Please model this.
Amino acid sequence: MNSLIIQGGKIIGPSNILEADVLIEEGRIIRIQPDLAAPGVPRISAHSRYVLPSFVDVHHHGATGYDASFGMVQTGDQFSLDMDLMRSGLKRWSQYLYSRGTGHVLLTTMAAPVDQLLQSLGALAQVKAADPRLQKQIIGVNIEGTFLHMPAYAGAQNPAFFSEADIGILHRLQTASQGLIAMVNVPPEQGEKGIALIQEARRQNMVVAGGHTGATFDEFANAVQHGLSLAVHFFNGPSHSSYKSFSGGGAFEAMLACDEVSLELILDGYHVSPTYVRDAIARKGVENIIGITDSMFVNGMEGVDSFLLAGLHGRVSENGEYLRPIDGPEEGGLFGSVLSMDSAFSNLVTWLTTEMVGFWTPHHRALSLEKALVMAVQICASNASKKMNRPQSGVMAEGAMANLLIGTLSDKGAGYQFSCEKTFALGEEVFSL
Model:
């Protein structure tokens, strides 16, 4: 029996922080309590450090040169699906994410030629099937861009590659990926075809999201009644908003009003101001907020100033902290991110412990560090796991899967910084400083 005790850490649980030991056996958390007696079981000290679930990112396009839609970048703007490159590149990508505390990922595709996606998803499926570490880390694929409909709401996606809401395309992509598709974005303005696609996706147990959408409130609410339950990178996209009374308003208003809908938030401080993050949490409740990165392939790469992806030009900001489109209607907008989940977690703890004047809510009080850490774990791990119907992950609790981190939290004066020291996947140490 493979056993391990993580000793003396500050355990961030579902409702509080407890200084205790964690007993792991066969990939599961068996017991959490102080001063565990288990003679002969190997121990790792976590004294003065935090122990928390590894992060879950359900909207991640790639990093370290890998892109879910096109494969491994070679030189300039050329990508390759060569299997040797894919194997070595995904191994590097995986280790980078583990080093930043991300234990579970939905690899996310953008608007691209369907034939290209069939090839890239097929290559991904082959590499994943042969690599036990990737099998633990990649929990599925998120089809974000294929079924976008209205160019006005394209954001940093290429309208030339939009497809109608077609069940046949979804089936082809699912077959190519060997069943990996776990989430699909279906903007609800496509009428009966869109509703049929939502129903088919739900029949296959996929999470249905809505974003980059020009839908009215009524259209979006109707899609929710048929199974849509997630707003794609809320505040970004863009998605239709209307202050007028016609058709109930826009999709943006429906995302807020429909209790069944959770909100993705990109927590880099650029896509969404900290004030709106606090407002969204207050409006929807912490249980309905899911932190994401929207990370692109240039994340974790050095020496990249500009790039071309799916026919769209982008550039890295001067401070290296965000991406912008170079030209086109989105000049001044953003193009995915270079965010990692440990930074998202750090940002969130900082914002939650800071007193703020809100836009929708008059005043946000500064929360205690303990309360902020518990909420940040929910937003960066637990809520996404529940949305993906994986309730035994993303939580420090007896019986849960032993996907967890050991790390430190430093107060830098201008904010908190979380640093990952060790990452475990089903009890196996997959990263250590």
